[in-house]
Amino acid sequence: DVKVTQSSRYLVKRTGEKVFLECVQDMDHENMFWYRQDPGLGLRLIYFSYDVKMKEKGDIPEGYSVSREKKERFSLILESASTNQTSMYLCASRQQGVTEAFFGQGTRLTVV
Amino acid sequence: AQKVTQAQTEISVVEKEDVTLDCVYETRDTTYYLFWYKQPPSGELVFLIRRNSFDEQNEISGRYSWNFQKSTSSFNFTITASQVVDSAVYFCALSEARNFNKFYFGSGTKLNVKP
Q: Between A32 and which of A68, A74, A95, B36 could a Cys-Cys bridge form, CB atoms 3.0 to 4.6 Å apart?
């Protein structure tokens, strides 16, 4: 079974802090994604990576950056956390091509 | 415009009732894929089904069935004889040929199954 693991289930950070959300997958998938989930808005794509060191902006990249130094790991970085970034963050991975994506358990981030 | 619309925000049923979750999509591509995911209270999205645009055959898996109709751009999901464990948020998603790397998710339907 594919395993996508996010480093934290819950995080509380202060406004202005630099925040790292980590995601690791164990199936050698080329594609990895970061989504944000908010009530009534569904899942919105923040960033996507199709290979090591390769990334592409999603629909809402402002205020975020990403890093993919190794194939199995995809990090989401909030350069200076703000209260409007309080949300559920979901990481996913997917084999190259048209296949389903596999999701991690999510990180619920609260910025105070 | 929304590419995937799940008009039902929340549905409540009593155990053993049948329930249908609606999904309407919008695309100009002739090749595309549709997906359903389940998100239980634990938070992780669980993949349920993938359908490509060339296969309109309905699918049944146990108590779950899916009705794909290109004429109405719909991909509805029915749970027969619902159970409390079916309580979750269900997401419909679309992936288009122009960019298969991108998923468009609906806003989700929260299903409450009461004992």
A: A74
Contact assignment for B42 to A98 by CB distance below 8 Å: no
Q: Is A8 helix (H, G, I), strand (E, B) or coil?
A: coil
Alpha-carbon gap, residue B88 to B48, rounded angstroms? 13
CA dist B95 to A24, A56, A97, B26, B102, Å? 23, 16, 11, 11, 6
Question: Is B115 in contact with B12 (CB distance < 8 Å)?
Answer: no
Residue A75 to residue B83: CA distance in whole angstroms: 37
Q: Please report residues of A whose CB lies closer than 8 A to that of B35.
A: 100
Chain A residues touching residue B103 (CB < 8 angstroms): 33, 43, 45, 101
Q: What is the pLDDT along chain A (112 residues), one digit of tens a residue?
A: 668 999 999 999 999 999 999 999 999 999 999 999 998 888 999 999 998 989 999 989 999 999 999 999 999 999 999 999 999 999 999 988 767 899 999 999 999 9
